[in-house]
Amino acid sequence: MEQAIGWIAVIWVAFISVLFLLPQTTPVSDSNGIIWANVNYASIVVVGMMVLLTIWWLTSQRKVFKGAVFQGDEATLERIEAEVERESIYHEPGVTAPANRPQ
Q1: Is pLDDT above 70 for 28?
Q2: CA dihedral defined by 14, 47, 23, 21, rounded to 10 degrees?
Q3: Closest alpha carbon to 42 in 71, 19, 76
C-alpha cells in the first residue's frame, strides 16, 4: 500500500509541475509574434536553472561529492532512537512501541 501511495505522489507532483509551467492566459502569441505579457516565465526560469546547475555539476561538483557519510553502527543508532523516543513529549495514551524496540 505504501508503494502505491508513493507512486501516486510522484505522478501527482509530475502532473502539477507541468500544470504550473503552462501559460496562465491565452493566447500566448498572435500574428505579430509572442505576447510577452501573457508568457509564464516559470518554464524559462526552470530551464535556465537546470542548464546552469548541470554546467556547475559537470565542472566541479561531480568530482567533489563522495556520497552519504556513515554515522555509526546499528546498535548506536538504536540506542539514540530509544533515547529520543523516551524523551519525546508526543506519546499517545494507549499506544505502545513495537516489542523489538527498547523503551
Answers
A1: yes
A2: 20
A3: 19
Q: Which of 49, 41, 51 is nearest to 21 (CA)?
A: 41
- What is the rounded distance in angstroms from the CA atom of residue 25 to the CA atom of residue 23? 6
| pLDDT score of 37 more than 90 | no
CA angle 6, 89, 100 (to 5 degrees): 60
Sorted by sequence, the CB contacts under 8 Å of residue 29 that are 6+ apart come out as 35
Q: Residue 89 has what pLDDT?
A: 73
Maximum pairwise Cα distance, the chain: 72
Contact present, 103 and 97 (Cβ < 8 Å): yes
Taking the C-alpha atoms of residue 44 and residue 56, their distance in angstroms, rounded to an integer, is 18
